[in-house]
Amino acid sequence: MEIYFVTGNKNKFEEIKSIIPELIQLDLEVPEIQELDAKEVIKFKLTEAVKIHQGRFIVEDTSLYLDCLKGLPGPLIKWFMKTFGGRGLYEIAYKMGNNKAEAKTIIGYSTGAGEVHFFEGVVEGEMVEPRGVLGWGWDPIFKPLGYTKTFAEMTPEIIAEAAKKAIGREIKVSEEEIADFKEAEKCVRLQKSLGGPAPEEVRKMIKDIKLKLSTLKKDIALKEKKLDQAKKLLDKEANKIIMLN
């Protein structure tokens, strides 16, 4: 079954198609909710896509999070860019004295049968004056930590080199990996986010919860013992008062 990338953005599709050549662009009239949680935005779009078309779907959200704005604009970046522009966003960070920023990409994958899985990547960086002509959107004002170039100054070769340095291989998805994504069980096992749903991650979470429960039970038992001792002491003192009267 085909895997569709739901987007009307040609640039975004070409970028991800260079990583996953088998993807097919699907430009659907899917409403986009205004929500600060990118996963909720993605989940809603995937749910709507399933209602309109048959297949497996990918929806991607790449957002910019400014430290000086406590994480805004996040998924609302499109509207901030329309209102302030790239230079305007940079000047906000500059005037507030905090240029720290974070670029986050979240990919949602739907099996087409109601299952949604998320994959996330984060790049820390800083806001700078607009530089470069490559890329689009806010690429000219974001410079990753450890690099002298903005996203808009980075050629595909530089990005590939950075990826190899970060994850140990090129940003490519093999046919075998795509096959894994097509199989629900394997797709679940691939997820490594905290709490799962990959079995090993769930087991770690359960082990941690059991440890916390064990500690909590010991704490409760100790408090119950102290309460019992206090009750006995109180009864003893009450009996003394009764004897005196």
Report on the architecture of this protein.
It is a single chain. The protein has two domains: 3-191, Maf protein, CATH 3.90.950.10; 192-245. Strands 1, 2, 3, 4, 5, 6 and 7 form a seven-stranded mixed beta sheet that branches. The chain is built from seven helices and seven strands; from the N terminus they run E-H-E-H-E-E-H-E-E-E-H-H-H-H. The model has no long low-confidence stretch (mean pLDDT 80). With 245 residues, it is of the alpha/beta class. The radius of gyration is 26 Å and the shape is elongated.
Short description:
The protein is α/β, with parallel strands linked by helices and 245 residues long.
Distance between the termini: 89 Å
What is the chain-wise order of helices and strands? EHEHEEHEEEHHHH
Class computed from helices, strands and strand pairing: alpha/beta
Could you estimate the helical fraction of the residues in percent? 40-55%
Shape-level CATH architecture of the largest domain: Alpha-Beta Complex
Gross morphology: elongated
- How many domains would you count in the coordinates? 2
- Roughly what is the average pLDDT, rounded to an integer? 80
Q: How can the largest sheet be summarized?
A: 7 strands, mixed
CATH top level of the largest domain is Alpha Beta
Bin the strand percentage.
15-25%
DSSP strand count: 7
Radius of gyration, in Å, reads 26 Å
Number of helices: 7
Task: Give a topology summary.
Elements: E1 3-6, H1 10-17, E2 24-26, H2 38-52, E3 56-66, E4 73-74, H3 77-95, E5 100-110, E6 116-127, E7 142-144, H4 156-167, H5 175-182, H6 184-190, H7 199-244
Parallel strand pairs: 1-2, 1-3
Antiparallel strand pairs: 3-4, 3-5, 5-6, 6-7
